[in-house]
């Protein structure tokens, strides 16, 4: 099967999942064509069965905002015709599912070719952007016009059904992880980060307001007051500068390390004792799953789809959004009890196995096959 993949090519969870899914499909022998404005960060176009098609948006003085959706629709049409694609899989309702609908109509009416569209909802397209009154009709239309719709969590599926007038069935297919990438790391040297045997606590995000970065710092400060520890802040974003200022004001500069965007995430996770996730909204919480795959217990909020990943009292602990005190208490209960911490580490890895590639990717392959079969019934 020849599959077109449309996604954001950035470090965000949706882009990572879309890229990894395409890579796995290519390994299964499918021909995978990525269609986006820049090459996805985790994509190696030298791998067999993987192709990249850049969407070019030209700068015209007439437009204050360049019409990316038009360029994307045109590129999808061009790629389907020239490469003989069988199906389009778009990640995010806006703008990708909307652009895919236009491409689908052009292909059918101008070329007599019916190409099914699979849309995967990841979160922000529903919980933040989609609920904006300016976009809501387009989001609703795009979802209902997709041939197959999937969601990365039950929480997001329900939120979508509650917020929009959806007539399509939404199938839940959770995010996944390649466990082989986390099976030990010879470069895992704790002494580089914690030379005096400090406990290592880690956070990874794009540091937007929804991640509640001040809570991360405050939780760490509470733990640090009773336990010798260091905090690793991985990622970058609009809240980073404020976080660095907060760290200075709390006198924690020597024990909080900001790494920015780095390719060393797995090395840093493998040496970590706890992972912090204080978000007020998460459709799934892929970073929590990555931590668990590295045998790191998770202290998280109970927002969105996180409880579908992190099991309270087994792989970590769940707290209400903003409840810094309980997160501090839970963190200390693990860090000050080595036997309990080791049990939680083992539990975290066992839970991560349930989201392994071999379990989840075949579900997407089945979706493609179903959409492809239904195409023939329609055409």
Weakly predicted, low-confidence segments: none
Gross morphology: elongated
Mean pLDDT, to the nearest integer, reads 90
Enumerate how many helices there are, as a single number.
14
**Count of separate structural domains:** 2
CATH class of the largest domain: Alpha Beta
Walk me through the structure:
There is one protein chain. The chain is of the alpha/beta class and 379 residues long. The protein has 2 domains: 2-176 and 357-378, Glycogen Phosphorylase B (Rossmann fold); 179-353, 3-Layer(aba) Sandwich (Rossmann fold), CATH 3.40.50. 43% of the residues lie in helices and 16% in strands. It contains 14 helices and 13 strands. The mean pLDDT is 90.
Characteristics of this structure?
6-stranded parallel sheet, single chain, 2 domains, alpha/beta, 7-stranded parallel sheet, 379 residues, Rossmann fold, 13 strands
SSE blueprint:
Elements lengths: L1 E5 L6 H15 L3 E6 L13 E5 L13 H16 L3 E5 L1 H19 L5 E5 L2 H4 L8 H10 L2 E4 L2 H10 L6 E3 L17 H4 L5 E6 L8 H12 L4 E6 L5 H10 L6 E5 L4 H6 L3 E4 L8 H8 L4 E4 L14 E4 L4 H12 L2 H16 L3 H22 L1
Parallel strand pairs: 1-2, 1-4, 2-3, 4-5, 5-6, 6-7, 8-9, 8-11, 9-10, 11-12, 12-13
Helix pairs in contact: 2-3, 3-5, 8-12, 11-13
């Amino acid at each position: 099967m020849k599959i077109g993949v449309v996604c954001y090519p950035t470090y965000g969870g949706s882009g990572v999942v879309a890229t990894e899914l395409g890579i796995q499909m290519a390994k299964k022998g499918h021909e995978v064509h990525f269609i986006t404005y820049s090459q996805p960060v985790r994509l190696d176009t030298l791998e067999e069965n993987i192709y990249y098609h850049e969407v070019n948006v030209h700068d015209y003085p007439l437009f204050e905002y360049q019409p990316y959706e038009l360029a994307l629709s045109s590129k999808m049409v061009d790629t389907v015709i020239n490469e003989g694609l069988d199906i389009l899989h778009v990640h995010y309702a806006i703008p990708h599912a909307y652009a895919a609908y236009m491409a689908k109509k052009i292909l059918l009416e101008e070329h007599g070719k019916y190409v099914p569209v699979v849309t995967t909802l990841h979160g922000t397209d529903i919980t933040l952007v989609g609920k904006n009154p300016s976009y809501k009709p387009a989001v609703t239309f795009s979802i209902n016009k997709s041939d197959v719709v999937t969601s990365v969590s039950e929480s997001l599926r329900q939120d979508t059904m509650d917020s929009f007038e959806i007539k399509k069935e939404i199938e839940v297919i959770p995010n996944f992880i390649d466990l082989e990438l986390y099976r030990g790391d010879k470069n895992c040297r704790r002494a580089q980060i914690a030379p005096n045997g400090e406990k290592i606590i880690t956070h990874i995000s794009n540091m937007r307001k929804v991640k509640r970065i001040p809570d991360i710092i405050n939780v760490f400060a509470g733990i640090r007051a009773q336990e010798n520890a260091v905090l690793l802040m991985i990622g970058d974003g609009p809240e980073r500068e404020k976080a660095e200022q907060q760290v200075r004001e709390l006198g924690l500069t020597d024990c909080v390390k900001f790494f920015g965007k780095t390719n060393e995430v797995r090395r840093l996770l493998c040496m970590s004792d706890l992972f912090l996730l204080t978000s007020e909204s998460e459709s799934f919480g892929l970073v929590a799953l990555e931590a668990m795959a590295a045998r790191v217990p998770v202290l998280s909020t109970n927002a969105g789809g996180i409880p579908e990943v992190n099991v309270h009292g087994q792989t970590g602990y769940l707290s209400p959004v903003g409840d810094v005190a309980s997160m501090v208490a839970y963190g200390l209960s693990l860090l000050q009890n080595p036997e309990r911490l080791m049990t939680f580490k083992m539990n975290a890895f066992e839970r991560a196995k349930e989201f392994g590639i071999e379990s989840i990717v075949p579900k997407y392959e089945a979706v493609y096959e179903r959409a492809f079969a239904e195409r023939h019934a329609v055409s």
